[in-house]
Amino acid sequence: MKNYRITEHPILEFKRGKKKTFTYNGELVEGYENESVLAALYAAGIRVFSKSKVLGNPRGAFCMIGKCSSCLMEVDGVPNVRICTIPVKDVKNVKSQSELANPPATSSFPGNRPANINVDVLIVGGGPAGLFAAIHAGKYGANVLIVDDHYFLGGQLVKQTHKFFGSRDLFSGIRGFEIAKKLVNQIEQNSNVQAVTQTTVFGIYDGLTVGAYDHKNRRLLKIKAKQVIVATGASENYLVFENNDLPGVMGAGAAQTLMNVYGVKPGERALIVGAGNVGLIVAYQLMQAGVDVVAIVEAMPRIGGYFVHAAKLRRYGVPIYTSHTIKKAHGKNYVEGATIIAIDSRFNEIPGSEKYFEVDLICLAVGLNPYSQLLAQAGCRMAYIPELGGLVPLRNKYQETTVSGLLVAGDVSGIEEASTAMLEGGIAGITAIINIRGKKLKDAFMDREKMLAKLEEIRSGPVFERIRKGLEKVIVSG
Amino acid sequence: MADFLSTGIIDAQTLQKLNLIPSPERIRMGPVAIIECPQEIPCDACVAACPSHAISKTNINSLPRIDFDKCTGCSLCLLACPGLAIFVVDLSPTNGKAYVTVPYEFLPVPKRGDKVALLDRAGSEIGVGEVVKVFMSRDRTYAITLEVDYDKAMSVRAFKISSRR
Ligand code: SF4
Ligand code: SF4
Ligand code: FES
What is the interface pTM, i.e. ipTM, of the complex? Predict the structure, then answer.
């Protein structure tokens, strides 16, 4: 069997854990304990993870982080499990689902008795914003619970191998996955903060009662919190073009997860769609993983990401086609090539300008979308703000939404970047503890003022112009 | 002027205009950092990295400024810069050669004495150089010093090992 695992990497060492076998549609597959089931299957060469409902076309996996549902399978008898969010360690038999799964035979959740939990501050999402919120709320004495649907904390920091921008007190110059380790370490040191992983929050109800399902222990959690901070991040956008559902078309972040978290090579030759920071960074990281990047296409007339990220690709000869878009993915069961085409200033295709590339991987880096359904469900006033990536909640500068006791932080409140997400998290965490303990916490107020000032300083730069415009529409006073 | 933002390639003249290039006299005196970071982005890693306090920013978004008289060419900023945008150039050799130090984060890692293909800012091969120094930082960024022809010192910004994976 072919093995797509990366054995040597200039930056990373992969801690895959012990070897472990499981069955996939009855056949034995070899994986490693710490890999996601999806990564193990991908490493074994499996590229089709579902079939389209109507035509039965093969579908690949798109997000690799539990946000797109293109990898639902039956795992040890439980249908509709997102196999990108569970470790090989926990599984025995995995089966692909050719049709929609049958509803469970009983109307109750499978498994154990529900648990009731009471906390001061519940944080939904263990990425940079959520971790910062937990650290700061915990620091001032709140009893904090973090809930995350993945099987380890860190959110998307864990796949960032590049060093971060931002300021020194927010880890500038340190690689993203190292920052994740530092933050998780701080959480583990603080006895006020607990975390449960592999647990999905499905609803926020009256009086800040939160419903969650713990997949690992198969039980329902009923969490009563004095304050809730939603830091659920974002999902990657799709793009419409011919054959965009062929296996081998995936989110750029998904390729990043495969190669940097699990050490699995997502392809041999890649085309990147989108020259924002995500596209540029992932292109460079693909090269580090030994993948040939044949080109980057960008619909706008100029590169959207930072000059320095573009420059480090250009000096290795990677072409960036601005005012170009992808027209078509070629291939029958998986991507074998891509056609790009030039577009004019009104985004009309210019016939005759097509170019063909032989590739087996097409990475879409065409923006992120705030993962904000939970906030809408909870009754927050929401607004569609294109500058912030989609539907986001109205809030004040302390990150409080229009629902009392419900706060937000990070990409779910508008797509920005990790350093602003961390600051928002810190501000939300402190606001939560101030709301609980009242005005006595002098240091907390000062701490929060400092973070507000820092946030404003970072956002004052020209690259934040669009974001500033968006924020004006959603930050309300009060 | 904003053209480099649409192409990702900047030229030496534009860097000169932005005051990012030291005087010829200074480069002839020995190694000095050249910061090719011409866009206001929120980052201060180079400021924090310099032991000689040669780099400054008026706020987190402003362009980095470097005091070429304070710079010792130690390469620590080059190793810390998340944008891999800092290079160290040394025109002090008198044998018609110059030294250019570039950041490197790929495999394989070259050895002293290796001959490598020199690349300019657009990725074009512009000759062959020799690796004269290999230094790894704690977080696995390498600073690779190349001996190149004197007149290529302001053009060489990367290199390629023919057997690169
Ligand atoms: S090369 Fe050394 S002395 Fe010069 S600016 Fe960089 S860190 Fe400072
Ligand atoms: S560390 Fe690099 S990217 Fe950051 S400001 Fe300095 S030169 Fe620019
Ligand atoms: S939910 Fe698993 S790939 Fe998207």
Answer: 0.96
